[in-house]
Input
Amino acid sequence: MSKRFTAGAVATAAVLALTVTGLGVPANASPTSFRTFTVVAEDGVAAETAVAAIRAAGGTVVSRSDEVGMFQVTSDRADFADRVTAAPTLIGAAEQKAIGRKPKLDRVEQEQVLANTAAAGAAAKKGAKLDPLDEKLWGLEMIRADQARKIEPGDRRVTVGVLDTGVDASHPDIAPNFNWSLSRNFAPDLTDVDGPCEVPSCLDAVGTDDGGHGTHVAGTIGAAANGLGLSGVAPNISLVELKGGQDSGYFFLNPVVNALVYAGRSGIDVVNMSFYVDPWLYNCNANPADSPASQAEQRAIIKAMKRALTFAHNKGVTLVGALGNNNEDLGAPRTDISSPDYGAAPYPRPIDNNSCWDLPAEGPHVIGVSAVGPSGKKADFSNYGTEQISVAAPGGFARDGFGTPTYNSPGNRILSTYPLKVLQEEPISPTIPDPRVDANGNIDPRVATLVFKQCKANGDCGYYTYLQGTSMASPHAAGVAALIVSRFGKAERRGGFGMSPDLVEQHLYRTAAEHACPEPRLQQYRNEGRDETYDAYCAGGVNFNGFYGYGIVDAYAAVKTPLKPNARP
Output
């Protein structure tokens, strides 16, 4: 992939950072009759033709992404969305509201955080540990990243975009690898979901993360091996913040699409996407359970997301995404009872697998990642299925190891970097409102096995905590993808460096550690306290199956195995 930083590209990036924000008016502005929409044009429609149609429908274009035919629009017409749907050159209008989120922290990622906290949980075996907390990173040992770094620790020229809630660049394990020049914030704070804005513009400064999720993801990918805290899968690569998610965990269409377009324009090598699209758990072309307006909105979301993913891929970006935490076969989805999850009450929606998509995981060119626990067992919460899975990776499974002392212990999850500010705001549990870390930076003793602190001699401290989810599995795979680019990428014209995402994907699959389906193939989690809705059937063979795809990613094999272009996985 060629990395081109022309004057025009830099100027465009600056415009995106300031105007493509998901807001038509400032978040703290007084209420008006104007509403904000994302409008998507039909295939093959020229940008100016689309703009003319938007104006005719009663809208004003605030910003535009011509590469994907997407326009941010304000309008005071009550019937604006209907007029857009009726226009032959436009697909539909999605009114500004949450259309994506990371998996809910209280349901999966921090499940029973105080349960059995005295148990140590899984621990990595002795090996090439670089930082003090690496001994707790069983995921590094499972994918042999601790061995891979002896051959390839990562190349600073390789950039990994963290499309998430932000990245705390002040964290001492993130700071050495944070790329300030490329990082951007596309998602200003929205007071209805994020609370009061920290700055007058509501656009948080680059290098901040008031949600915590993005910093955790970033640490797994590329925390520096600097003798402090812990190290990531690819400890020498460059981390790029692509803030497309709100502090509250919602992801809006406009910021996400523009972050992907920016990644393609800017020559970013790998983008990790540990979120999925809402308010519809599945976006459908024409679900009979939905109103005509909702159908048009979902068609616009589907088209914009697929165009953005394809654009980024064609520009050289390897796309890695979490399969989701709904313990569901994505090839045989259940009735959706959770959508819409913002702006209106949810209602039952039967899902047609041929016309509905869980995005971005089911989007084009996305490497879909399931989650496994320390034993290699598919995590009870992890989505799966031969239709969408690509590979598996360590994502944590609190209830792994039933019948052993490690069952339901913190160490079965994934430890990574976390912002101090968030730990000082997050309660210990839903029933214990005290913060996990006090105003002086001291960890509450009740979470001493969940939260860790490491300090430099100068007093600069980093904080770390456990989470679990496919959100934690995806960055393991993204880190291996970054090592592949580091190992086999080529210098390109104009000073660029990169590798075809098709080759990265092929090599990732070919070097993954094959993992057969368990016996019996129908896995039940009754011992773990789960009912029949968690039952999961593993279809497929050793080479490829619904739980593990082509296998569990293997960093060591990925950097040691010679590249074979056009070889099949």
Remarks:
- Residues 1-31, 102-106 have pLDDT under 50 and may be disordered.
